[in-house]
Design a protein that fits this description.
It comes from Streptomyces sp. 900116325. The protein is of the alpha+beta class and about 230 residues long. The protein has nine helices and six strands, in the order αβααββαββαβαααα. The relative contact order is 0.10.
């Protein structure tokens, strides 16, 4: 079935922007804020309407998600809900609110759970500062399922870690195999959510990659209350 024209003004700006991305930009291609401005002249919030599509399952990356993009570039990665169709402008249940975002960031200590860097901190050997946002990470459970959980992650790790799956079962299994001294060391690190380098660095590193929900299960395995 032929798509409606993105120029048809009977649609709102967000729906027209969705059609423009599909028919003009194309999945996988890059566009700029200037491109949006030229496509929708006189509409001051057009760029914002493009961003709103993320709430409907559309993947539109910026330089924070894709290191190859410039400051003003975006990449149309994948189409979500066909919002121009009647009844389809329903927000994706996986989208999160600002309140949820703040709760996730606070629960993760406002730091990247992959590398430990905090927002605004400068990466080693560079002048680039870290930006912390919310990523979605698959976590393999002991029962074999792999639900997606939210986790705080910096712009560098989010780009490099796409498609990776954390393994909660392996972490808990590894905990069970620790001797008394090593178990106590890991317990102290998990309790403080901080560590010193030592013999069980690998397990600690695996624990640090887990989202808050899965970290609480490791805490339980160690006899600690939820964070």
């Amino acid at each position: 079935m032929a798509l409606p024209s993105w120029r048809d003004e009977k649609f709102g700006t967000m729906k027209r922007a969705a059609l423009w991305l599909v028919t003009v930009v194309g999945e996988g291609n890059v566009f700029t804020k200037e491109d949006v401005k030229n496509a929708f002249p006189g509409i001051s919030q057009a760029d914002r309407r493009v961003r709103d599509l993320r709430d409907y399952g559309w993947q539109i990356d910026t330089h924070r998600e894709d290191a190859l993009l410039g400051q003003h570039e975006q990449r149309f990665v994948a189409q979500g809900q066909p919002v121009w169709e009647p009844g389809k402008a329903t927000k994706d249940s996986s989208s999160i609110t600002d309140t949820q975002r703040r709760k996730i960031l606070a629960g993760d200590g406002n730091r990247c759970r992959s590398c430990g860097i905090t927002s605004g901190q400068v990466y080693a050997n560079s002048f680039e500062t870290a930006q912390i946002d919310i990523a979605r990470r698959k976590v393999k459970q002991p029962d074999g399922s792999s639900p997606v959980q939210f986790v705080a992650e910096c712009n560098r790790c989010r780009v490099g870690g796409r498609g990776l799956e954390a393994d909660l079962g392996a972490v808990i299994e590894g905990v069970a195999k620790l001797g008394g001294l090593e178990r106590q060391m890991l317990t102290d690190w998990v309790a403080a959510d901080e560590r010193e380098f030592g013999a069980v660095e690998r397990l600690w590193a695996d624990f640090r990659t887990l989202p808050a929900e899965s970290r609480d299960k490791v805490r339980a395995a160690l006899g600690l209350p939820p964070a």
